[in-house]
């Protein structure tokens, strides 16, 4: 795959599709590929779209793509679908709502299953973002699963996070409280042609007045946009708000700061995952650990002591020449 990087940089869509599949399936040379792609990343602006199921995220994404294409931007889309815990399959149907862009060579849409990952994203989402970034996308839109208050992971991948709400979907205060409230850079009241839309806007504004700005950034008050994705009403104003947030981040220096923070967090995640895999392999090979686990079951030793012993011995082996 590494040898196909020049074709990717040249805009070859087939190579792009193959690389995404390769990364998503955890191909043997994935790390080498991502290592070589790293210098070509960091240029695309990532927009995260989250919210409850049925809020119209896919239809809204379709309208945002249309608006961005008016500016001749190259757009990549990652639509994350839930994976069945029983069959392991996913419908991957979000692209049906974006069919108007199939023939547009400057739009690339990819659906991905969560494959058991919590937080609204697939495990490979961040890696696929890098591939799309290197391919020359100006904007990358990541649409999350839509699982309510648990999908906070999007804030670790997106530069601007849009939280989509709808009138008539129950208690909107319940929907926007806690984490969801804090991750939003822009609130979107979709289906605003329905009764109750203005009430939702008012409730959001009241909550904002009480505090809850993202990451303590008191210089940016998340605006509220009203849209109707079925006909595109208000989407142009929404895109302008996204661009205004980008300008704010760039002017204040927070864009670079947040991206640096995310890269540092990514390094920590990789280290943690490798340590976990190292321990898992050791546990699978050694009968000694199985004996210790049996002692835990028999209440002869506690789990914390066993965990400490495994870590110390494994790290000692790795550090000893």
Account of the protein in words:
- With 321 residues, the chain is of the alpha/beta class.
- It has two domains: 39-252, Rossmann fold, CATH 3.40.50.300; 263-319, no CATH class.
- It is built from twelve helices and seven strands.
- It has helices spanning 5-9, 13-24, 30-37, 57-69, 125-134, 172-176, 178-183, 197-209, 235-252, 254-285, 287-297, 303-319; strands at 45-51, 75-81, 107-113, 139-143, 160-165, 186-189, 224-226.
- α8 links the parallel β6 and β7.
- The longest helix has 32 residues, at 254-285.
- It is globular and about 65 Å long.
- Estimate what percentage of residues fall within beta strands: 5-15%
The topology string of helices and strands comes to: HHHEHEEHEEHHEHEHHHH
What is the helix fraction of residues, given as a range? 40-55%
- The CATH topology of the largest domain is given as Rossmann fold
What is the first-to-last residue Cα distance?
A: 34 Å
Radius of gyration: 22 Å
**If helices are DSSP runs of H or I spanning 4 or more residues, what is the number of helices?**
12
Based on the coordinates given, report the CATH architecture of the largest domain: 3-Layer(aba) Sandwich
CATH superfamily of the largest domain: P-loop containing nucleotide triphosphate hydrolases
**Largest sheet, order of strands side by side?**
3-2-4-1-5-6-7
Given the helix and strand composition, which structural class is it? alpha/beta
List keywords for this structure.
321 residues, alpha/beta, Rossmann fold, 2 domains, 12% strand, transferase activity
């Amino acid at each position: 795959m590494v040898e196909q990087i020049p074709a990717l940089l040249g805009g070859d869509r087939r190579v792009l599709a193959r690389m995404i599949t390769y990364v998503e399936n955890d191909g043997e040379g994935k790390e080498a590929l991502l290592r070589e792609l790293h210098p070509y990343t960091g240029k695309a602006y990532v927009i995260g779209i989250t919210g409850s199921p049925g809020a119209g995220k896919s239809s809204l994404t379709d309208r945002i793509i249309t608006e961005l294409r008016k500016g001749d931007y190259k757009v990549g889309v990652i639509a994350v679908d839930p994976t069945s815990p029983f069959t392991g399959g996913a419908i991957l149907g979000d692209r049906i709502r974006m069919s108007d862009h199939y023939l547009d060579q400057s739009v690339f849409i990819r659906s991905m299953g969560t494959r058991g990952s919590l937080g609204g994203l697939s495990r490979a989402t961040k890696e696929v973002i890098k591939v799309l970034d290197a391919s020359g996308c100006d904007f990358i839109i990541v649409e999350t699963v839509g699982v309510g208050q648990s999908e906070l992971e999007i804030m670790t991948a997106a530069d601007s996070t849009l939280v989509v709400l709808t009138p008539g979907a129950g208690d909107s205060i319940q929907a926007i409280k806690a984490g969801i409230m804090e991750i939003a850079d822009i609130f979107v009241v979709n289906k605003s042609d329905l009764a109750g839309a203005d009430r939702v806007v008012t409730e959001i504004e009241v909550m904002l007045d009480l505090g809850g700005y993202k990451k303590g950034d008191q210089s940016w008050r998340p605006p509220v946009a009203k849209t109707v994705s079925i006909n595109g009403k208000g989407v142009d104003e929404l895109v302008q708000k996204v661009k205004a947030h980008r300008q704010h981040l760039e002017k204040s220096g927070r864009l670079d700061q947040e991206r640096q923070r995310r890269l540092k967090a990514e390094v920590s995640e990789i280290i943690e995952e490798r340590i976990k895999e190292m321990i898992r392999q050791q546990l699978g090979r050694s009968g000694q650990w199985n004996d210790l686990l049996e002692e835990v079951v028999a209440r002869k030793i506690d789990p914390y002591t066993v965990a400490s012993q495994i870590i110390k011995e494994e790290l000692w082996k790795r550090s000893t020449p």
